[in-house]
């Protein structure tokens, strides 16, 4: 039988310790019978009612699941204004987090693994991406380079801006053949190059926007050299960059917040922070202003005044 706890005035720390003990004992699920968050309606999380029962929003239970490496099933209503929330331990990490045994081009090429992920269907990925693209918005008729483009989701996202920029000339680059073929079928107006990011073809030319999401920290990519090359050779005056570093792991079909070392439960954002700080420093030295947003991917946008723009532009970091 699935272990169950009646949560009335029980404190959060008591719930947590109880759930941790269940998981430590090898349990893969547990249930909490909790006051229906909708009934508490509008009270601050933790604020107690007259009977001393703290109010907890649905979000609080979702966060508990995330912190304990679980997912939550749809709650079932119970009598007395309570609901039963079932927590299931998340399945194993996605296979693409492993170091590849074969060629690294194959790492993200499996259509039933990374190729089946639809980042744009996840509000926590879509909305920060659109906000970042809006900051770095290319002009109508501009040129956009998408590095590590895979099946072209960033190209699709450009078309979701309101209004979408018109007449873009988009070039996607990736070293994996199958995702590139899929991208070419999805976006017949764009062009695609199969190339290693460490050896970008010089004839690519210069762009109004360069996007590189979840690719700069890939095995074998010299991110610092690539960034220098992008700034020196592939950006038009006033061109912008959108650089994204993963701050998540995919596990049991879900995206979970926070960079981690494989099979370590604890999040560790040290490397992401270090790399972003280095990119930011370099970009400031080259006259860009930067902004860091995002959630599951941390998204650094770097913009520079267009040569024809007004001089009142603020260049402070
Ligand atoms: C994690 S996926 C990210 C895909 C997409 N940008 C996104 O955020 O969903 C990394 C992509 O970069 C490509 N990639 C990794 N290393 C590369 C390299 N050295 N040269 C070219 N492409 C590379 C992979 O093939 C893969 O399509």
Description:
The protein has helices at 12-24, 37-40, 58-67, 123-135, 153-158, 177-186, 223-233, 270-285; strands at 4-6, 29-35, 70-72, 76-78, 82-89, 143-147, 169-174, 191-194, 207-213, 235-246, 248-251, 254-257, 289-294, 297-303. It is α/β, with parallel strands linked by helices and 317 residues long. It is built from 8 helices and 14 strands. The strands form 3 sheets. It has a 7-stranded mixed beta sheet with strand order 8-7-6-9-10-14-13, with helices on both faces. Strands 1, 2, 3, 4 and 5 form a 5-stranded mixed beta sheet that branches. A two-stranded antiparallel sheet has the order 11-12. Helix 7 (223-233) packs parallel to helix 8 (270-285). The protein has 2 domains: 4-89, 2-Layer Sandwich (Translation Initiation Factor IF3), CATH 3.30.110; 95-303, 3-Layer(aba) Sandwich (Rossmann fold). The radius of gyration is 23 Å and the shape is elongated. A hairpin with a 2-residue loop joins strand 11 (248-251) and strand 12. Bound molecules: S-adenosylmethionine. The site of S-adenosylmethionine has 19 residues, from loops. S-adenosylmethionine binds next to loops.
CATH class of the largest domain: Alpha Beta
Percent range of helical residues? 25-40%
Strand content: 15-25%
Give the count of structural domains. 2
Q: Give the overall shape, derived from the CA principal axes.
A: elongated
User: Largest sheet, if any?
Assistant: 7 strands, mixed
Decide which structural class fits the backbone: alpha/beta
- The chain-level mean pLDDT equals 92
- Helix-strand topology string: EHEHHEEEHEHEHEEHEEEHEE
Strand order of the largest sheet: 8-7-6-9-10-14-13
The CATH homologous superfamily name of the largest domain equals: Vaccinia Virus protein VP39
- CA-based gyration radius: 23 Å
CATH architecture of the largest domain: 3-Layer(aba) Sandwich
Distance between the termini: 57 Å
Would you report the number of β strands? 14
